[in-house]
Amino acid sequence: MDADAIIIGAGACGLMCAVQAGYVGKKVILLEKGDKPGAKILISGGGRCNYTNLYATDEQFISANKHFCKSAFTQWTVDDTISFFETYGIQGKEKTLGQLFPEGKNAKDIVEVFTSICTDFEQQIICGANVEEIEQTEGAFTVQYIRSGKSRFIKAPKLVIATGGLPIPKMGATDFALRFARKHGLNIVETAPALVPLTITGKDEKWYAQLSGNSLFCRLSNDRISFEENILFTHWGLSGPAILQISSYWRRGEQINIDLLPGNNISDLIDAERQYNGKSLLSAVFNRFYSKKFTDAMAKFLPVEKPVASLTKPELELIHQTIHLFKVKPAGDKGYDKAEVMRGGIDTNELSSKTLECKRIPGLFFGGECIDVTGWLGGYNFQWAWANGFVIAQQL
Ligand SMILES: Cc1cc2nc3c(=O)[nH]c(=O)nc-3n(C[C@H](O)[C@H](O)[C@H](O)COP(=O)(O)OP(=O)(O)OC[C@H]3O[C@@H](n4cnc5c(N)ncnc54)[C@H](O)[C@@H]3O)c2cc1C
Q1: Are residues 273 and 298 in the same domain?
Q2: Ligand 1: does its nearest atom lie under 6 Å from the Cβ of 98?
Q3: What pLDDT digit, counting tens, does each position of 35-45 carry?
Q4: Confidence class of residue 137 from pLDDT cuts 50, 70 and 90?
Q5: Which residues form the RsdA/BaiN/AoA(So)-like insert domain (predicted)?
Q6: Where are the alpha helices (DSSP H) in 239-375?
Q7: Which of 150, 198, 213, 310 has its CA 20 to 30 A from that of 347?
Q8: Ligand 1 contacts CB of residue 388 (under 6 A)
Q9: Does the Cβ of 131 fall within 6 Å of ligand 1?
Q10: Which domain range does residue 138 map to?
Q11: Residue 204, SS3?
């Protein structure tokens, strides 16, 4: 045997797993296809790495089995993440909505925490190692990888597949975990890009494009969920945190409802304006909340240049509907090139929620994004990856 375990993928889950394995006295070999470990950590949060969320609970995770993530989150909590990084000199600073970033440091420092602990524990990280095949022989897994054009084999009694999801193929994302699962008859929950911008085409395209660069605090909802955050208009549709969040709950062909003035009632505001100065134009009311560009764009739907006193009842109703129940039907999403995570993945029914071991293949563990557990935007996905790394390490 070459090690106690082989970990495929030196991303968030694989690195945490290697480090935690070190704490329990296990030797691992990490095989990483890319030329450096933690590539996605390095680009996360715009290079600053939103490494956890103070308010993370199992409620912010999407999965066919919403209870599956609970055990991992009980074993490794947000406080564990915070104190782990604090031990290595990284203090957390909340940016917004519980999102924790390293104070005065960045994503590179987060990766360095892992690589330096791996060095201390003499955990081997082999980069440029593209795993192609896994063979299971009695009590062992033989992993075949290609490095510098040469095929190599290593062997261990335990194997961890932490090869991530499909987003950002140009950074080396692979479908390795999904391919392996399919080959061994494991069920896969349908995958799709998530936390992804949405596109608008057809007759509405120009209307959205003219607003490119404008952002607006909104409440987005569908029949499953609602989010209050900014949306961002772009040349091809909609982005911004609220759109990324709801994209994970959006299915092709569906509509999204947008409240363009959450926390206010436009009808009341118009009523008040009518009493104060009925000659005010509707645009003057709008301009208190929106950019001039947005108010001008609303002229396509509403009589913005009309004095508020002369608005008719049907017009007032239309204004209320348009502002509080603006409907958008995206054409599609920007795909894995722009998605932050993958929805779906290895069916959680195939795994033990307590250990993440594959029920049908003892000794084999899946961890991180390749599993059908997808977090919201805001540090939740790393919390899942760290927790998985910890849980699996206890079994090696
Ligand atoms: C632009 C962007 C920004 C993000 N920002 C945040 C953020 O701020 N906060 C947050 O919580 N989440 C963020 N995420 C999501 C987060 O990066 C992922 O959820 C997390 O990295 C998943 O961890 P993982 O270990 O499962 O996979 P990864 O971190 O993707 O690691 C998988 C590793 O496996 C390697 N690999 C794949 N196939 C093979 C193979 N055949 N052989 C060997 N190695 C292989 C890959 O090269 C990769 O290094 C962001 C994602 C993106 C794309």
Answers
A1: yes
A2: no
A3: 999 999 999 99
A4: confident
A5: 193-341
A6: 241-247, 266-277, 282-287, 292-297, 313-324
A7: 198
A8: no
A9: yes
A10: 5-193+339-393
A11: helix
